[in-house]
Amino acid sequence: MGAQALAHQAPPPLLDDIEEVLITEQQIRDRIAELGTQISADYAGKDPLLIGVLRGVFIFMADLVRAIAIPIEVDFIGITRYGPSTQTQGIVRLTKDLEINMQQRHVLFVEDIIDTGLSLRYILNTLQARQPASLRICTLFNKPRKRLFELDIAYTGFELPDRFVVGYGLDYEEGYRNLPFVGVLQEEAITRRRLPPNTQT
Amino acid sequence: MVDDREVPKVRKPEPIPNPKRIDEGPRNFSHPAERAFAAVLDFYRIHWEYEPTTFPLEWDSEGNITAAFSPDFYLIEEDLYVELTTMKQRLVTQKNRKLRQLHELYPDVKCKLMYRKDVENLAIKYGLFEEPTTASEVSD
Description:
A: alpha/beta; Rossmann fold; globular; B: alpha+beta; Endonuclease, Chain A; 26% helix
């Protein structure tokens, strides 16, 4: 589906940077409803704690928890991400810790996207050390071909092709998260954003 | 009657450990992509070694190694080798063949090949390269 066909659903300047819509807003909504139903059944009576890592997951988490029909709690962690500004600043660390004690809780770790698994490996090691009763993974988007580490993912929304996508929480340099669908970012937009501000045309 | 025909000396596939570096100076990576990938691994506290092992793949009739494969990285805790390639897809055939041979001769060895597109997407995601993502072609 062409990006312009969804012009009523997203800010036009963002649409100009989208080459192709891969997953529509309706498809996302339908799949999250299915995930919510499945999680509600699997965790009935367990009062699960859903944990997400900021920031990309906030949109998916907001929709997912509303699709779950059993009592739950929600918490978030933050970690430093590798990038141009962190290349010389050592190693990954927590920037925001949990506020809810997860010991002996049934924890569902919620991700927006899993590709290499690099950051998730660190997060899972950190969470596992806190002795949850169980720890499982739910991701809306999965890129298994890019995985470096074997991961057991309990719930997957969509498998994505090996293309650079944005929208529905997925960003490129903090932009495009607010697109209601998932689309492929144009090469030109990647190049433009990679240039320092004073060299952009 | 004893068959005295000469039997080709084909050696059993056996990995060859490469000499470990003992100094802590900067490594001489073959490509900026390797240096960038190593920095990402360090950031995520993943212990790695650079080209620690050579896997012989082919031998001549004398048993001499004629083809071998030395994956770029070994991720210690994962027991996983990773080979990066920034070559264009049409030039990757030879590397794919080596990887197939590796899996056939050393079925217990886990090795992941990251293709040019994988490396480019890592570069986009993490802002890795000092140079444009269309990195120059390299061969091993």
